[in-house]
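Morning run. Coffee first, then this:
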Amino acid sequence: MTIFGVPTQALFGQLLIGLINGAFYALLSLGLSVIFGLLNIINFTHGAQYMMGAFAAYFLLNWAGLGYWWALLVAPVAVAITGIALERTTLKRLYQLDHLYGLLLTFGFALIIQGLFRHQYGSSGLPYAMPAELAGGRNLGFMFLPNYRAWVIVFSLAVCLTTWYVIERTRLGSYLRAATENPSLVQAFGINVPRMITLTYGFGVGLAALAGVLAAPIYQVNPLMGADLIIVVFAVVVIGGLGSIMGSIVTGFGLGVVEGFTKVFYPEASNTVIFVIMAVVLLLRPAGLFGRAS
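And here it is:
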């Protein structure tokens, strides 16, 4: 059976790949949007922190004997702590300056982190086995659905929607939004704004690390795994709207699917379609699809 001249199995296979990529785009762009929307920092270290999450899972397995499920809990927290240390020692000095200073600083840290890991572990991938509980897959008739990939899609979507709900629909989220707009007023109500900002940055970094743990069994653990991905993720954030939580989620999954279908119908454009869409969106709606003009 074919659809538009393309075999059904190939079409749904690319749809699955698109959803997988979209899950990582959404998680990473969500972390970027949380950090930029609440702290006004363009965090170019995000790709390196994604890679650190994968390496943290690898270290936990090989050094401490902790498997995948423990890594989902421990690795994001461990990487988030390094992010908190980075924010407390350097980034907090740049909040009153132009966004460019934060971008340059985080870009420099990204190069340093990737360089250190590449020097120690080379550029070849290190294998990381998926959990035995999620091995195998299901034959749906029109395609074969690997259990682990289905888990990644569902779990990523759940994390993204939970984050959106907390920030947009809870009292904690209202405190966070208020702290970015009028920190002096929020501080007058007895809320420790600097601590809130630090924990928010740590949470955004933890989302990147969580994506790294999820990616490790699929893409292997590589010091450069975040270097190319972060460029695409920044394009996703720009298309969705800088600082828009829901924009990051919808755009991340949507562009992953668009990229997957492009590989079926026009493979030559699959590596550039997201950037073409970004250019069109910036021309027609500079604030992004879900962003608000300042």
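The chain has one domain: 2-284. Good start to the day.
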